[in-house]
# Entry
Amino acid sequence: MNTRTQTTDFTPVDQDLYAAAFRLLDPDPTPEPAAPVAPAALTAPAQAPLIAVQPVRLTGPVERTLTDALAFLDTHGWTRYSLINTEGARCSIGALRAAAGSRNAAYRDAGNLLLDEARRQHGKKWEAIPAWNDSHSGAQVRSVWEAAIRRAHHMNI
# Structure
């Protein structure tokens, strides 16, 4: 017998809708049997797992020019008051010219970045690299070169 003794404000639940909702949440609680396994001789060779590889970062032309010029200074020496001294040492501009090979865009951009870094470290009064180069010690000049290389690297140029 189906008699109600109490009334409620609840809406009756559609049992089919309720079952469909649970099937969506748990579509098949019992796994299907696995397909038969083929003999090892008949299967395709297993592929090697993919390995995530970091992208290779290429050195930009400005960074390369600055790095090569600093290496030139390390190898041949640094000087003041002349482009090239009698022993083959060069000033900053001489090293840039040797590294770039010609007065190309990389030479120009490297020089601008070097001068900008010199102004950051030693004041805005420097109008050209030779004047700045001749007025500072080797350690101060090297510090500017290294900072310019780091900036070129971070700027990816």
Remarks:
- The chain has a mean pLDDT of 83.
- Helices lie at 15-25, 61-76, 92-100, 105-122, 129-134, 138-155.
- The chain is about 50% helix and 0% strand.
- Residues 77 and 89 are 4 Å apart (CA to CA).
